Amino acid sequence: MVAWKKLKITVSETENTLYRDSFEIEGGNFNKAGIVSTSIKSLLKQMGLAAEVVRKCAIVCYESEINVVSYARKGVVNLTVNAETVLIEVVDEGPGIPNIDLAMQQGYSTADQKIREMGFGAGMGLHNINSYSDAFNISSEVGKGARLLMTINISNTNKK
Amino acid sequence: MNLETIVKELGLEVRCASENLKNNVTGGYTGDLLSDVIANSHEGYIWITRQVHQNIVAVASLKEHAGVILINSCEPTQETLEKARQEKIPIMVSSMPAFELTGKIYNLLGIKD
């Protein structure tokens, strides 16, 4: 069963866009893991978004960032804040995900021993991203990379 | 209850950010899997863990934990201390194992200041 939502969303700048920025993530560097998420969290806080919205964004951002650091060569987070939603797009250059259904299963992980010893790679990342997003789209091309798109609603209309 | 009370009651050793011991502790979470902690802990929690590397600071900071306690006399790495100072996250060390420490804190939090 596919528990996650496949929604076609395109990120494009509209007149509703309040803020847009991109942040680079370095693959393999655990010393810097979390820096992008922390910056984005501070930014959203400064914009005055509700604590619950900031919390959700921080979690999905952090999990995505850890995935890029763990598996990819590099990645970029594109943050778009509209009047009603926060869109977080994470695109990486890396091995990609051969079986997305399997990767979405809680507990499934391809992490190596080094990653697991640090407390990552428990197979919870994508699951967490899905639970904390109001909409989640994931696509991947093996050998090229993966793209995640998370939408967090600012209004409470679709609160999880 | 604030961190200072927990530190005194349980004889914890504070390794950094001692200026933030007034942080209010609203609950706690024990775990070494960072995604588990991210998903299930909340703001104001004290986090009890065996992990000592610097990524614990990012997690504690993102989740706005009151502080982190390392069990079994495990010491934070230098990088962890530096980051925790920057982020003002108190890191404490206990000689107790996770089960015992968690139980004691759980009981303490049940008592009103």
Molecular structure report:
The complex is a heterodimer of chains A (160) and B (113). Chain A has 160 residues and is an alpha+beta fold. Chain A contains five helices and five strands. Chain A has a single domain (19-158), classed as 2-Layer Sandwich (Heat Shock Protein 90), CATH 3.30.565. In chain A, strands 1-2-3-5-4 form a five-stranded antiparallel β-sheet, with helices on one face. In chain A, helix 1 (35-46) runs antiparallel to helix 2 (51-71) and helix 2 runs antiparallel to helix 5. The longest helix of chain A has 21 residues, at 51-71. Mean pLDDT of chain A is 89; it is low at 1-8. By secondary structure, chain B is an alpha/beta fold. Chain B has a single domain, classed as Udp-n-acetylmuramoylalanyl-d-glutamate--2,6- Diaminopimelate Ligase, Chain: A, domain 1. Helices cover 40% and strands 18% of the residues of chain B. Chain B has helices at 3-10, 34-40, 55-62, 78-87, 98-109; strands at 13-16, 27-30, 45-49, 67-70, 91-93. A five-stranded mixed β-sheet of chain B has the order 1-5-4-3-2, sandwiched between helices. In chain B, helix 3 (55-62) packs parallel to helix 4 (78-87). The longest helix of chain B has 12 residues, at 98-109. The model of chain B has no long low-confidence stretch (mean pLDDT 95). The A-B interface holds A 30-31, 33-35, 37-38, 41, 51, 55, 58-59, 62-63, 66, 118-120, 122, 124-125, 128, 131-132 and B 32-36, 38-39, 43, 49, 51, 53-55, 57-59, 61-62, 79, 87.
Helix share, percent of chain A = 25-40%
Number of domains of chain A: 1
How would you state the average pLDDT of chain B, rounded?
95
In terms of DSSP E residues, the strand content of chain A is: 25-35%
Largest interface: A-B, 24 and 20 residues
**Individual helix count of chain A:** 5
Strand order within the widest beta sheet of chain A: 1-2-3-5-4
CATH class category name of chain A: Alpha Beta
Number of domains of chain B: 1
Could you give the distance between the termini of chain A?
20 Å
* The CATH C-level class name of chain B: Alpha Beta
Total count of strands of chain A: 5
Alpha-carbon Rg of chain B, integer = 12 Å
Average pLDDT rating of chain A: 89
Largest sheet of chain B: 5 strands, mixed
General shape of chain B: globular
Q: Please write the string of helix (H) and strand (E) elements of chain B.
A: HEEHEHEHEH
CATH topology-level fold name of chain A: Heat Shock Protein 90
Q: Please indicate the percent range of residues of chain B in DSSP E strands (runs of 2 or more).
A: 15-25%
